[in-house]
């Protein structure tokens, strides 16, 4: 899959029943009904409440030559670019590299502070991955989610490594990892429990 280039990695926080977000996502509640305030406070507490315990995993979230994310991961759940919007990530996003956003609606590239530039790709995952590989050179490409975008890449056989952060809560409904994905052969590479999460890395086998 990777040839001479870097790996294609996905990195995702999920509930124990496999959901990366609950139902009823909105601009104000990007993670929907997660049992908290919808901001992702319950799913992602491991990043913010115990950062030192999870420093290596947090640092790896931005350690790639280029990134791919779905439309909802970038910004609000809307069908059109109906107003100026810089996305969920603020004026200085944590990526500091090219980010390729999958969308059905074209938009000019959007430079941000700190070296991040969003590129909006309307031609699908193969085009986004080709552009991300070119931008990353021999570095890794990280598919940042959400689960629907990762599922598309998994179903197409494009992921080399799957990094999951499994949080001990259930959501019961929402956007779920592996939905619509054919059976996969996974090799466990690492597993590390922490107080609020278990970090598991799998290699996706051919």
From TrEMBL:
It holds the Pfam family RibD_C. Residues 21-43 are annotated as: Disordered. It comes from the Bacteria. GO terms for biological process: riboflavin biosynthetic process. InterPro entries: DHFR-like_dom_sf, RibDG_C, Riboflavin_Biosynth_HTPR. Residues 8-192 form the Bacterial bifunctional deaminase-reductase C-terminal domain. GO terms for molecular function: 5-amino-6-(5-phosphoribosylamino)uracil reductase activity. This is Dihydrofolate reductase.
């Amino acid at each position: 899959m990777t040839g001479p280039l870097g790996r294609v990695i996905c990195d995702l926080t999920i509930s124990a029943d496999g959901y990366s977000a609950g139902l009823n996502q909105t601009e104000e509640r990007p993670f929907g009904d997660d049992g908290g305030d919808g901001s992702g406070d319950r799913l992602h507490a491991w990043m913010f409440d115990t950062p030192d315990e999870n420093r290596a995993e947090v640092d790896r979230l931005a350690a790639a030559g280029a990134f791919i994310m779905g439309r909802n991961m970038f910004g609000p759940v809307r069908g059109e670019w109906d107003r100026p919007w810089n996305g969920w990530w603020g004026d200085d996003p944590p990526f500091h590299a090219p980010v390729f956003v999958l969308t059905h609606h074209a938009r000019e590239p959007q430079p941000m502070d700190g070296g991040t530039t969003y590129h909006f790709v309307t031609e699908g995952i193969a085009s986004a991955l080709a552009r991300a590989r070119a931008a990353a050179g021999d570095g890794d490409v990280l598919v940042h989610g959400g689960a629907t975008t990762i599922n598309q890449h998994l179903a197409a056989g494009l992921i080399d490594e799957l990094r999951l952060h499994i949080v001990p809560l259930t959501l019961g409904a929402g956007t779920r990892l592996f939905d619509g994905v054919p059976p996969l052969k996974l090799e466990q590479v690492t597993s590390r429990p922490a107080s609020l999460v278990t970090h598991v890395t799998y290699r996706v086998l051919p």
